[in-house]
Amino acid sequence: MAGLPAAGKSTLADILGARLSASVVSVDPIESAILEAGIDSDQPTGLAAYLVAETIAGLVLESGHDVIVDAVNGVDPAREQWVGLAKSRGETLRFIEVICSDPEVHRERLEARGRRLPHLNELSWHAVEQSLDEYLPWAGASAAVPRITLDSARPLGVNVDAALAFITT
Known about the structure:
The chain is mainly alpha-helical. The chain has one domain (9-168): P-loop containing nucleotide triphosphate hydrolases (Rossmann fold), CATH 3.40.50. 54% of the residues lie in helices and 11% in strands. The strands form two sheets. Strands 1-2 form a two-stranded parallel sheet. A two-stranded parallel ribbon has the order 3-4.
């Protein structure tokens, strides 16, 4: 999964995980746990969370199960991490990028969400707008991986069906 915060990645990841009997590994709860352990927020806790997610995803793959990684994946190093993991395990990788083309809906979702991550501050709309500026175009090895972009302004069922068709072809 890839996309800005509150674009709808987690909702889609959870539904796909249930439908495909795949494990969902989400970076945000991992980062919250790292912060809960007492690691200062001025440390690279986001990077640490991605690395922990990669380790967990690798273990899931080794056990013979599919995995969905739920993360922003807004920069090449993050995307390349998943390319490397899939390649090292001989697995097929597909990226599902989730956008929300309606800024008002996106903002409403952000402001209404109530994640139970007590050590991870909810983002402001301004922070999401800044994330958009930092969200890089797809390049390098990740650009060669099959990718679908789904707009969460569309009905959820339409996106679930499109994602399932993309994953299973």
